[in-house]
Every structure is written in structure tokens, then in C-alpha cells.
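Side project, low priority. Logging it here so it doesn't get lost.
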Amino acid sequence: MEENLRSVLSQGSASMWIIAACSVIALAVAIERAIALWGFVGRARALAESVSDALRRGDLADGRVRCERSRSPASAISPTTSSSPPRSESFRRSRS
């Protein structure tokens, strides 16, 4: 016995239509989030590379500028943007 989707939804009344609509919405949100995450990863990787290059040169100011100019949300959590020293330096100072 072959039934199509419309007949199955019709037999299930309004609750089946609500479940089907919610499933379509959930799928759309999942696709949108995947696309947003894909873009975030690329921008974060590019930011990490540019900041690492600046820090390898010993130019902390350039690393901070690159974070401030970046559109990536990862720039907000970068340790070079904070005014306090990294944890390892403050730990060494407290041990001295």
C-alpha cells in the first residue's frame, strides 16, 4: 500500500501539519547555523594567523590592532586585546 506524504499528513490532522512545519523550520535553522559557523571558523583562523605573525615579530601593538580591526567574534576573546598580562606572566611574578 503506497501512501504519499499529503495523505499521511491529512490522516494525522492538524498536529501532523504542525510537526511537519516545525521540522522544516528546524532544518532551515540548522542550515543557517552551519553556514554561520563555517564563516566564523574561516575568519577566526585568518585572525589567528595574522596575530601569530605579529606576535612572532614581537609586535604586540600590531597584534592588538589586528584584533580590533577584525570582524571575527574571536577577536573579542583574544588575549592580546586585554589590558592585563597573560596568566603565565602574572603567575611567574607572584612566584618570584
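Brief comment: Residues 86 and 92 are 10 Å apart (CA to CA).
Revisit when time allows.
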